[in-house]
């Protein structure tokens, strides 16, 4: 290294500046500009010819995947862990990121795969205590752990283990490289350290998992480019007061996105939930008013979810609209449609909506179930327990068709429901209550009280 080059860079949009400023002039983000000191070495002027391969070459006949012993994680990743894949796992503190990856390392080692867990936050004795808590076997000889944060030392340690298959880096914000002079956790250190480990994964075929801290906004801390550099981005979600955890894929170069895996946090670690629909439904003989059952699709997996709505009189000039697990703006739109198209005036009520189980629903097919729950709560008429609802509602009040209808119907049938309220085609084993307009929901709920 000859000398260092100092500059300032925005961690939000990567814009560079010659001096520090409080607000980025490109993306207008406050407090995002920090010093980016990189050691400048010899400049290479002449490149070399890289090895050129054909798409139809020998790689098509090589096994590029490693079986994952945790079926829910395997489902989210697309079936196998591709050799040389780099995966970024983010989530709130204490949600179970390290526990999940520690269980993965131990189970991979039980299957005969050499695995290495790198901890930059805990000591080796602390990691061994956690492994004993989740039930590590004395026969597991191929699971290794070291406490290290230097990228150069990590690569050298990984090279010393023959036939290494899996490498866990906990966390990416603790990594540091000698080529960058700034402190660990800065944008330049995170970017440089991650790039070195990604290059190592591609050259050796070792699958690498990065654990990423998140900010108060729920985004992975560090430069946004980190999510573009890796092959897969996973988020671990769940309420802290709930035992359920949801693993969701946001980006996946080797499989479908928006797939979810459901886990349950127990004393001995995370256990897989084989039937998520059963977990998200309340076990009761009858539904109370304001409760409906929605058949949703998360990725390619159908799920039955319970929608709960509570309506209370309000003395505030602007009544409250509170949503947990759904979009507040979408709720406001449905309230307006019910008021204009059906005469159900909810403008003077506080409305609270919750998706049971801590699941976050983003698809518009939940409009029908939410509208039914709103009408049920407004009229104080419980909906039948054997009814499921799905369908998108437009501003005109029309019920629009949704995708993956057959999967939704089959899941409803499997879980024992008898009637589907939607605008879907007929089904042999289910009774279809066909609806084309939101006004028919109000009429159907009123008829239930007769």
Automatic annotation (TrEMBL):
One Pfam family in the UniProt entry: Zn_ribbon_LapB
Single GO biological process annotation from the record: recombinational repair
Domain RecA family profile: 62-214
Position of sequence motif RadA KNRFG motif: 251-255
The keyword RNA-binding appears for this protein: no
Keyword DNA damage: yes
InterPro entries linked: AAA+_ATPase (IPR003593), DNA_repair_RadA (IPR004504), P-loop_NTPase (IPR027417), RecA_ATP-bd (IPR020588), Ribosomal_Su5_D2-typ_SF (IPR020568), Ribsml_uS5_D2-typ_fold_subgr (IPR014721), Rubredoxin_2 (IPR041166)
Keyword annotations from UniProtKB, A to Z: ATP-binding, DNA damage, DNA repair, DNA-binding, Hydrolase, Metal-binding, Nucleotide-binding, Stress response, Zinc, Zinc-finger
Binding-site residues for ATP, renumbered to this chain: 91-98
Assigned GO CC terms: cytosol
Ranges where the record places region Lon-protease-like: 350-450
Single GO MF annotation: hydrolase activity
PROSITE patterns, per the entry: RECA_2
Role: DNA-dependent ATPase involved in processing of recombination intermediates, plays a role in repairing DNA breaks. Stimulates the branch migration of RecA-mediated strand transfer reactions, allowing the 3' invading strand to extend heteroduplex DNA faster. Binds ssDNA in the presence of ADP but not other nucleotides, has ATPase activity that is stimulated by ssDNA and various branched DNA structures, but inhibited by SSB. Does not have RecA's homology-searching function. Plays a role in repairing double-strand DNA breaks, probably involving stabilizing or processing branched DNA or blocked replication forks.
Family: Belongs to the RecA family. RadA subfamily.
Domain notes: The middle region has homology to RecA with ATPase motifs including the RadA KNRFG motif, while the C-terminus is homologous to Lon protease.
Protein name according to UniProt: DNA repair protein RadA
């Amino acid at each position: 290294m000859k000398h260092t080059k100092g500059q300032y860079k925005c961690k939000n949009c990567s814009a560079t500046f010659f001096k520090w400023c409080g607000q980025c002039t490109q993306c207008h983000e406050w407090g995002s500009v920090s010093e980016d000191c990189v050691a400048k070495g010899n400049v290479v002027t002449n490149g070399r010819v890289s090895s050129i391969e054909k798409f139809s070459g020998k790689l098509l006949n090589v096994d590029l995947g490693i079986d994952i012993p945790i079926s829910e994680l395997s489902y989210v990743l697309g079936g196998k862990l591709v050799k040389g894949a780099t995966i970024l796992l983010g989530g709130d503190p204490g949600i179970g990121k390290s526990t999940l990856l520690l269980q993965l390392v131990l189970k991979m080692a039980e299957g005969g795969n050499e695995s290495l867990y790198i901890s930059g936050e805990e000591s080796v004795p602390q990691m061994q205590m956690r492994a004993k808590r989740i039930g590590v076997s004395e026969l597991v000889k191929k699971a290794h752990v070291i406490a290290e944060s230097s990228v150069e030392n990590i690569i050298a340690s990984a090279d010393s283990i023959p036939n290494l298959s899996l490498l866990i880096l906990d966390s990416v914000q603790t990594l540091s490289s000698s080529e960058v002079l700034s402190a660990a956790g800065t944008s330049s250190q995170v970017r440089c350290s991650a790039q070195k480990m990604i290059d190592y994964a591609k050259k050796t075929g070792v699958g690498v998992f990065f654990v990423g801290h998140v900010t108060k906004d729920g985004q992975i801390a560090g430069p946004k480019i980190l999510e573009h550099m890796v092959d897969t981005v996973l988020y671990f979600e769940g309420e802290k007061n709930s035992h359920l955890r949801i693993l969701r894929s946001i980006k996946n170069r080797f499989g479908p996105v928006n797939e979810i895996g459901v886990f349950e946090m127990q004393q001995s670690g995370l256990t897989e939930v084989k039937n998520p629909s059963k977990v998200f439904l309340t076990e009761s003989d009858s539904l109370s008013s304001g409760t409906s059952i929605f058949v949703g699709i998360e990725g390619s997996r159908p799920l039955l979810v319970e929608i709960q709505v509570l309506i209370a009189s309000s003395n505030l000039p602007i009544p409250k609209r509170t949503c947990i697990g759904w979009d507040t703006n979408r709720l406001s739109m449905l309230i307006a449609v019910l008021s204009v198209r059906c005469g159900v005036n909810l403008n003077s009520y506080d409305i609270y909506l919750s998706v049971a189980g801590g699941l976050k629903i983003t698809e518009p097919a939940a409009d029908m179930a939410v509208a039914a729950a709103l009408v049920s709560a407004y009229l104080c008429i419980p909906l039948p327990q054997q009814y499921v609802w799905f369908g998108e509602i437009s501003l005109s009040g029309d019920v629009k068709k949704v995708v993956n209808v057959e999967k939704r119907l089959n899941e409803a049938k499997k879980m024992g429901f008898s009637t589907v309220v939607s605008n879907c085609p007929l089904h042999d084993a289910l009774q279809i209550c066909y609806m084309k307009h939101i006004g028919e929901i109000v009429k159907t709920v009123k008829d239930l009280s007769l």
